[in-house]
Design a protein that fits this description.
Family: Belongs to the glycosyl hydrolase 67 family.
Shape: globular
Domain Alpha glucuronidase N-terminal: 25-143
Strand order of the largest sheet: 8-9-10-11-12-13-14-15
Bound molecules: 4-O-methyl-beta-D-glucopyranuronic acid
Largest sheet: 8 strands, parallel, barrel
Oligomer: single chain
Number of domains: 3
EC number: 3.2.1.131
Number of helices: 22
Mean pLDDT: 96
Catalytic activity: Hydrolysis of (1->2)-alpha-D-(4-O-methyl)glucuronosyl links in the main chain of hardwood xylans
Organism: Pseudoxanthomonas sacheonensis
């Protein structure tokens, strides 16, 4: 137990001034503006926090760090409340003071907490109580967030528990340090120096994740290498698990389905083969010997060239159950991805996952989650929610969002993904009547599942600011907050983040939040308006490529998706076309299939329409498309001017980088607009609407651009 007393001279306790390079993320803990700081100091005059376990020690250390930074306090050990303004954190077993209060902590579960203003021996005290250490840690971060965002703390009565059980980051990190679709530098994991060297950054990674409630991390790419399951790499993973454990974070690994052959010397990886079953059971036992709280496996199988059960004529359920049986004795989970589409299958790619997985509903073991991307194609700027949500009631489905912006401008574009996540989670599947939202599928409440999960493909790298840009940190942040509670508002989360990351000044908060909230819609407009999708450059996915055709498979081209010709544009997924609409509930199938009712943002996702089709604005489709492209670019121009107006209100170093990146974004938004218009105009044959500028270059110029070294490519 420790008690903290304040420095009388606040200055003496202030952290050394340092340039803001983004390393501290939203945990900067800068000195609080003076009037507010004075009030807070009276309310936070003592800290009682045990440090008998690693998690308790981490909780205490974070509170000390935060309070010292925000309010300028110096810790002095003690163990009872002796004055008003004590903060007591812990569980009934770690804190006699909390035990005395007889709070109903049981109902908080292993990760929940409550924060309450109470009186103890006549003193006003803030209690952060939980039933287990991890809950107290989360509560401490919540309390710090209240201070960081300038909230009143005198009359608190909060309780919070996560609505989703597994809240994970999926790293697409290769063992050689490359990050697939990573735009924030090399992998954060220095596999070569592990397990002996534990970069302090790993601890800061754990702190940042714990501050959001993220409780698991898949260390390696789903396009996986069997070597990560060898003893040497398991030891390295175990070292990371040791760093993360105090922060409530468990380690998971992507498992290569053919590992029994590649590192086990077997002749087959057939899931029904007894030797293969034995191999996975032994492997699981071995893993749990070195990582006792190992979370489980993530598997990409029979997808984009990865090995899987279908190589042996078996189903995805056979494959998933093989690994599930191996993990079950240890309490581990299999996350089996539904991102599958076949090489041979000529059917609409948007339909294939549903076609393959729905018949398997009810065939998976109890410790299997099927991991489904938010949309049926591939993390596009906008997609309708994946039709699997709501269609497999007997199987827990977990959400897979992409945090890294593979299709949304890499690191440089300011695109806040909160509205994208929120739009998907709030979407109504109508699976069990109205209000059967995707969020309710994910949190298990719609179909009564206790095993629930959400995964975000991480945007974290070894770059100093973690995510490749300052604003990309917000995407990590909003993902984590929504994984904890999928019903939160992305605007409220943006506001929290801006306050913690940049400033509590209203003159900063309001314009930055507004700018963020419209940024995703702008990217949709300048890249793929009105339901267009998958029009990016081939394989590296950088920049526009609506002309991409030919190559190894049709569904890796752009022409497959936009289907533009002299007559019109769009993918007919109605009953007259691929009938993908039929994979949604009858209510939605009718809505999406009906031109009068389909939300306009999905118009060309579901319909092929003539260039002169009259859109809701009254403009013909071609004119509307051009209008959207232009307004996307205009929005970016607006963000640049908003941001330049904030000069002096945000530290110079971060201001300058954001300003420069917005400049890149404007250039690239213009490039997307111009190249797309130049290309589609060759098909529509229609003039640009009045007042619309012609593309800066010829179509041939845009088509000639090549980017062999664009970052993050798959391989
Ligand atoms: O979006 C695509 C990416 C691939 C990725 C794949 C997947 C890991 O372009 O790089 O591979 O999705 O999700 O499996």
């Amino acid at each position: 137990m420790a008690v903290l007393l304040f420095c009388t001279v606040a200055m003496a306790c202030a952290p050394a001034a340092h340039a803001e390079d983004g390393y501290d993320l939203w945990l900067r803990y800068p000195p609080t503006e003076s009037a507010r700081a004075t009030a807070y100091r009276a309310q936070v005059s003592q800290l009682l926090a045990a440090d008998a376990t690693p998690t308790q020690a981490a909780t205490r250390a974070e509170l000390l760090r935060g309070l010292r930074g925000l309010l300028g306090v110096t810790p002095v050990p003690a163990n009872t409340v002796t004055q008003a303004g004590a903060v007591v954190v812990g569980t009934p077993s770690s804190s006699p003071t909390i035990a005395r209060l007889r709070l109903d902590t049981r109902r908080l579960g292993p990760e929940g907490y409550l924060i309450r203003s109470v009186a103890i021996d006549g003193h006003a005290v803030t209690v952060i109580a939980a039933d287990a250490d991890a809950g107290a840690l989360y509560g401490a971060f919540h309390f710090l967030r209240l201070l960081q965002t300038g909230q009143p703390i005198a009359k608190l009565d909060l309780r919070d528990t996560p609505r989703v059980k597994l809240r994970l980051l999926d790293h697409w990190d290769d063992l050689d340090g490359h990050v697939e679709r990573g735009y924030a530098g090399a992998s954060i994991w220095d596999w070569h120096k592990l397990p002996d060297y534990l970069d302090p950054r790993y601890t800061d990674y754990a702190r940042a994740n714990a501050s959001l409630g993220i409780n698991g991390t898949v260390l390696n790419n789903v396009n996986s290498n069997a070597l990560s399951l060898t003893p040497a790499y398991l030891e390295k993973a175990a070292a990371l698990a040791g760093v993360f454990r105090p922060y409530g974070i468990r380690v998971f690994l992507s498992a290569r389905f053919s590992a029994p052959m590649e590192i086990g010397g077997l002749k087959t990886a057939d899931p029904l083969d007894p030797a293969v079953k034995r191999w996975w059971r032994d492997k699981a036992d071995e893993i749990y010997r070195v990582i006792p709280d190992f979370g489980g496996f993530l598997v990409k199988a029979n997808s984009e060239g990865q090995p899987g059960p279908q190589d042996y004529g078996r189903s995805h359920a056979d494959g998933a159950n093989l690994l599930a049986d191996a993990l079950a004795p240890h309490g581990g989970t299999v996350m089996w991805r539904a991102f599958v589409y076949s090489h041979e299958e000529p059917d609409d790619r948007a339909k294939q996952a549903y076609t393959e997985f729905v018949p398997l509903d009810g065939k998976f073991r109890g410790n299997v989650l099927v991991q489904v991307k938010n949309g049926a194609i591939d993390f596009q700027p906008r997609e309708p929610f994946h039709p699997l949500f709501g269609a497999m009631p007997k199987t827990p489905l977990m959400m897979e969002f992409q945090i890294t912006k593979e299709y949304l401008g890499f690191a440089t574009h300011l695109v806040y993904l909160g509205p994208l996540y929120e739009e998907t989670l709030k979407a109504d599947t109508h699976a069990k009547g109205k209000d059967s939202t995707v969020a309710k599928v994910i949190d298990g409440s719609l179909d009564g599942h206790a095993l629930t999960g959400m995964a975000g493909v991480a945007n974290i790298g070894a770059g100093r600011n973690w995510s490749g840009s300052h604003f990309d940190q917000a995407n990590w942040y909003v993902y984590g907050r929504l994984a904890w509670n999928p019903t939160l508002s992305s605007r409220a989360i943006a506001e929290e983040w801006v306050r913690m990351t940049f400033s509590n000044e209203e003159g900063v908060v309001a314009p930055v939040v507004d700018m963020m909230m419209g940024s995703r819609e702008a990217a949709v407009d300048y890249m793929t308006p009105l339901g267009l999708h998958h029009l990016m450059g081939r394989s590296h996915h950088y920049g526009p490529g609506p002309w991409v055709e030919g190559g190894p498979r049709a569904d890796w081209t752009s022409v497959y998706y936009h289907r533009a010709n002299r007559e019109g544009i769009g993918f007919d997924r109605t009953a007259h076309g691929s009938n993908a609409v039929a994979q949604y509930s009858p209510y939605l199938a009718r809505e999406f299939g009906d031109l009068q009712r389909v939300p306009e943002e999905f118009l060309l996702w579901f319909h092929h329409l003539p260039w002169d089709y009259r859109t809701r604005s009254g403009r013909p489709l071609w004119d509307e498309l051009v209008h959207r492209y232009t307004s996307g670019v205009d929005y970016v121009r607006g963000m640049r001017s908003t941001w330049s107006g904030l000069e002096g209100k945000v530290d110079a170093e971060r201001h300058a980088q954001v300003a420069a990146f917005l400049g890149i974004q404007e250039k690239e938004a213009q490039w997307w607009r111009d190249a797309s218009i130049a290309y589609f105009q060759t098909l529509s044959g229609r003039p640009l609407p009045a007042g619309e500028a012609a593309p800066a270059h010829t179509l041939e110029y845009y088509q000639s651009l090549e980017f062999p070294y664009a970052p993050g490519s798959g391989r």
